[in-house]
Amino acid sequence: MDKISGRQTALLQRRHLKVATAPGPRRFELVRHTDVSGVSGTGVVAEGVEWSDGTVTLHWGGRYPTTTVWQDGVDALLTIHGHQGATTIRWLDT
After folding, report:
1. Which listed residue, 9, 58, 72, 80, has the most CB atoms within 10 A of its CB?
2. Model pTM?
């Protein structure tokens, strides 16, 4: 039971830290080849970093800049923002 609200609370599932598999972070650009949504345009639409544990941070610029964290990595990010190949990742650090 939550002491503040008095409501029943569900147990939270804790995520285990992933073991780092790479030597350090690497930067990338999210490149949109076709603007499926009509919002972002084409070209470089966001910048990102893949951290050594596989977590990804993605930063959208523009009028309403936003930064998001993808704990499940690049594959999860591309599942949402890849638009079935219309958007790809260009690695800046190899």
Report:
1. 58
2. 0.72
